[in-house]
Amino acid sequence: MLTLGGTIAMTRSSAGMSGVRPRLTGADLVAAVPALEPVAEIQVEDFRQLPGASLTYDDIGSLARRLNEAAAEGVAGMVVTQGTDTLEETAFVLDLYYEGRAPVVLTGAMRHPESAGADGPANLLAAVRTAVCPAARDLGALVVMADEIHAARHIRKADSISPNAFASPGAGPIGRVVEGTPRFHFSLRRFPAVPSARTWSARVEVIAAALGSDGSLLAGLEQRLDGVVVAAFGAGHVPASWVKPLEELAGRIPVVLTSRTGGPVLSATYGFEGSESDLLSRGLVSGGMLDPYKARLLLLARLNSGADRAAVVAGFEDRC
Asked: Is 43 within the bounds of a domain?
């Protein structure tokens, strides 16, 4: 069990203090759930102690390396606790880099331990039970929240405060924990791990289309970034004023086209200026089914491995 901090580990440092912060250790979290003892022998590593919003790509890259080491050491299963703000992104990065067969299960909490009805203990128990379940092997990174089991490639945080805040749009959870037993509805084809990073220095940002936007944010991005993800309207559309700047940008750095709705990018349905077919013909790379934030992480992974444009395109085609 590797802890990163987050709401599940947050308390006040003293009575009357305004707001909670990550303070509990992994040992504290385990001690609060006596029902864990008969489930598994748990080794705890306090990996980070940060809010989810403060985690970095480097942090998660280091975590992925540690999980690969643990899998090679013969650990039966692994649980990661962290803040829910970036839980979906951490899960996806781990799914990209994790090479082992043992289950990797991420969880957290929407209500901190001092709240009435804190959900952290139940989520942790369900996550550990899933991590020791043979049916969870070879599925890559999973997320367990509110007794639902989600695949990293589909999971999204869909509400800012609800205890049942996570969903997998277009797919649904792949299983549930029922009376303490993980039950899987279906399994997924697992993608091969991406090549190991040569560097962690690539810079990629998401630029979102909005009604009436003139595209001024696109100017000069090639001087500051190594890649861009466009969160476009609908099935992959942008204002006409964006077309020329995007074409010029795509001639200099990889530009990935995604939908800000999280649905698929089309390829040949619409033909107007700024449509998906128009943009793809101008050199943008289709993000396929990936939402903008996961597409950013995949592009980062490819660029950090030293991939050229052809390898970037192939990397997205392989997963979409």
From this structure: yes
- DSSP-assigned states of every residue in the chain: -EEEESGGGEE-SSTT-SS-EE---HHHHHHT-GGGTTT-----EEEEEE-GGG--HHHHHHHHHHHHHHHHTT-S-EEEE--GGGHHHHHHHHHHH---SS-EEEE--SS-TTSTT--HHHHHHHHHHHHT-GGGTTS-EEEEETTEEEETTT-EE--SS-TT-EE-TTT--SEEEETTEEEES---PPPPPPPPPS-S---EEEEE--TT---GGGTTHHHH-SEEEEEEBTTTB--GGGHHHHHHHHTTS-EEEEETTSS---SSS--STTSHHHHHHTTPEE-TT--HHHHHHHHHHHHHTT--HHHHHHHHHHH-
Spell out the per-residue pLDDT of the chain, length 320, in tens. 999 999 999 998 766 667 899 999 999 999 999 999 999 999 999 999 999 999 999 999 999 999 999 999 999 999 999 999 999 999 999 999 999 999 999 999 999 999 999 999 999 999 999 999 999 999 999 999 999 999 999 999 999 999 999 999 989 999 999 999 999 998 888 898 998 888 788 999 999 999 999 889 999 999 999 999 999 999 999 999 999 999 999 999 999 999 999 889 999 999 999 999 999 999 999 999 999 999 999 999 999 999 888 899 888 888 76
Domain end, chosen from 150, 184, 218, is at 184
- Claim to verify: residue 10 and residue 149 sit in the same structural domain: yes
pTM over 0.90: yes
Give the number of domains in the chain.
Answer: 2
Residue 92 resides in a domain: yes
Catalytic residue set = 7
Residues spanned by the domain of 231: 204-319
Q: Are residues 178 and 208 in the same domain?
A: no
The answer to whether residues 80 and 169 belong to one domain is yes
Residue 58 is assigned to a structural domain of this protein:
yes
